[in-house]
Amino acid sequence: xxxxxLTRLLLLGAxxxxxxxxxxxxxxxxGEKAQLPAGASAGNGQPTLGVRATPPLDRLQGDVxxxxxxxxxxxxxxxxxxxxxxxxxxxxxxxxKVKKGAPLMxxxxxxxxxxxxxxxxxxxxxxxxxxxxxxxxERTKKLLEGGSAAQAIFDKVQxxxxxxxxxxxxxxxxxxxxxxxxxxxxLRAPFDGVVTARMxxxxxxxxxVPATPIFMLTNVEELEVRLPVPESMAGALxxxxxxxxxxxxxxxxxxxTVRTVGAVVDPNSRTVEVLADVxxxxxxxLRPGSLAEMDFSRSESLAGxxxxxxALLKDDKGSYVWVVEDGRLARRDVQALPVTxxxxxxxxxxxxxxxxxVEGATALREGLAVSVVx
Length: 374
Prior knowledge:
Elements: H1 3-34, E1 49-51, E2 53-54, E3 57-60, E4 64-73, E5 76-80, E6 85-90, E7 97-98, E8 103-107, H2 110-146, H3 151-183, E9 186-188, E10 193-198, E11 205-206, E12 213-218, E13 223-230, H4 231-234, E14 242-248, E15 253-261, E16 271-278, E17 291-297, E18 302-308, E19 313-315, E20 318-325, E21 328-333, E22 335-338, E23 343-347, E24 356-357, E25 370-372
Parallel strand pairs: 1-25
Antiparallel strand pairs: 2-24, 3-18, 4-13, 4-17, 5-12, 6-8, 6-11, 7-10, 8-9, 10-12, 13-16, 14-15, 14-17, 15-16, 18-23, 19-20, 20-21, 22-23
Helix pairs in contact: 2-3
């Protein structure tokens, strides 16, 4: 190959290389103009955020409804003073278990003891007078039958016996009244329970009217659960149904039986009050006042508008959800009622065709530019 041919070959190679480089740069520039970078929208360059949004469900299949209620004692009473007086003895302390009829507190009885003694003595005197009148009446009756006594004398003796009988009855009633007053100086337990509070001390003066509270007594063996059940679920509940639940916190499991289903709906919460009796399980310690979650199974489907629980938000204005309108977030104030652990029923403020943000709703704000992703 001559030097001239070699020079020509090198020149052709350089031209071909330059042409290839220019073509490659041209394709890159074209590709960058056709593809938007992540996090940007075409047109104005304003940032957008991808969100998951879906229309609300118009029907909810059978599921488990979880309701939070409160455990409470069936029997709980504030025990007040049975009479007016001064506390002389306190026989129990907070935390003591007592039986029905057990004495809890005694008022000062010194004056009443004297009154009982006086009434008893008066009754004995009246009893002696009645016995004497009975003997006299019987003797006069025999004399009358034998002709030794006139009818007028018998009538007079008989009237005296009736007066003696009436005097004895009056003295006996007075004695029993004094004894009852003495009995009322002792406050007794109306049922089996635990003393959960004491409001007075030795020497305090208490009154019958107005009543002075002294003890709080609670039966911790017979418990019930008060449950505000959504009205959509109430129709499926019947007395005698078994429901399972757990205490929160602690997750202590227990079982209860539905006793009553309320006849009215609370207009504010749209719930029905349900009372369920807690099964008697001595090995499980349940305390009145604790919160409990009860699970109600439902086989039939529910109609309405339902959104996932995580889509529902709350602030000082009430409950709301985020919906996507024309590529931006809009707040919709709603009335929502949880019907299962995963879904809430929405009333008002939402249409079936609305696209509701179902994930990450807490980090969003009004007017944010978004795009719906699946």
